Amino acid sequence: MSVELITLLMLSSLIAVVLMGFPIGFSLAGIATIFGFLFIGPQVANVFMLRLYVVFADYILIAIPLFVFMGIVIERSGVATRLYDTMYVLLGRLRGGLAIATVLTCTIFAAATGVVGATVVTMGIMSMPAMMKYNYSKPLASGAICAGGALGILIPPSILILVYAPVANVSVGALLIGAFIPGLVLAGLYVLYIAVVCFIKPAMGPAIAPSEIKVTIFQKTKMFLTSVFPVCLLILAVLGSIFFGLAAPTEAAAIGALAAVIMAAFYKALRLGVLKEAAIRTMTTSAMVYLVVIGASFFTSVFMRLGCGKVVESLVLGLPFGKWGILICMWAIIIVMGAFLDWIGIVMIVVPLFSPIAITLGFDPIWFAIMNIVVLQTSFLTPPFAYTIFYLKGIAPEEVTLAHIYQGVIPFLLLMLVAVLLFSLFPQIIMFAPKAAGLI
Fold first, then answer.
1. In the chain, where are the structural domains located?
2. Which of 28, 47, 58, 85 could be bridged to 299 by S-S, CB 3.0 to 4.6 A?
3. Tell me, what's the pLDDT at 342?
4. Dihedral Cα 427, 431, 436, 440, nearest 10 deg
5. What is the value of pTM for the model shown?
């Protein structure tokens, strides 16, 4: 059987099995096992054992349970509620102020947790009723929550970055530092869009009457110091230690986990039940991630050993579109896959194939990795399988329909594409921080 046919069979079998609803980790490992025994022989078991050892011995992956634990403890400490209350007071009198407050709170919360689901659910519970009370546009309110929550996979600490870096064989520290500014730029685009739309159409985001927000300067300062400031310290503890070379990413994750526990104690939320729940949820989430990583490692080892990687590389490089046309095609594939698969499946399938192609075309691997992560945010907003949409619908008031949510995310999807264009034209936006930190 030709290598080309084997490549087609492996990829089509994998897509079919995943679309049938099988877990991505078992799908990857199962397809790898079948094709490995058929075309390599029983000795493929030795390859799998070696790959299993490599995954469990990977020092970088230890950061995953540490960051997950940090995010869960922060989620349970009530920091999101405090953040939103502060933003509500500071921005509520502006047109679209509550939607802007939602995006900014999501941004800060994402930088403290890196968990999309927790951000969307928490902000949906807090901000959606407030925006509905003041007659905000349902699509605008829904889009702000979904897009703001999706920032959790871009703004560090991001679990996606921790998984992506070893797969692409790039520095996890460079990705963590490099993704921060693009995340803030994207959040800025969201805020600008909301402000402009609500200025043109005030009915979409009415300002709250000054009489309804009676807070003194002293109270505002106190709210800021007890909500925003501690979270900023946490972010500095994690990213600052990496940026200034004080700690490796895994060590920084441990610092973040300790800082989250201290913050929970500061907010008087450090209880045995909280720690027990955080430990159990960390264990289950980390086990899921490790399972997918192991399955992907098996699949990649068989796929590459059979020469299928060269087939895909030759096919893509042979496209008559030039280097930028090929790059756009790869991003288009990621966006289409995002409508049907979750991010971890996309990373494990396309990154081992696309990263060597990008390097061959002359693109910087760090820049390409962060651009892919920006594009991967669309997987949380593109129907039919958009996690943020399902998270929000599960906790939104009955008057907010799926049609409202779908309508609301479209402008933010377009803003993501604007960000991709911006970072393509000005790659220094992405490369500045890693270079300043001496990580590349």
1. 3-436
2. 28
3. 75
4. -140
5. 0.85
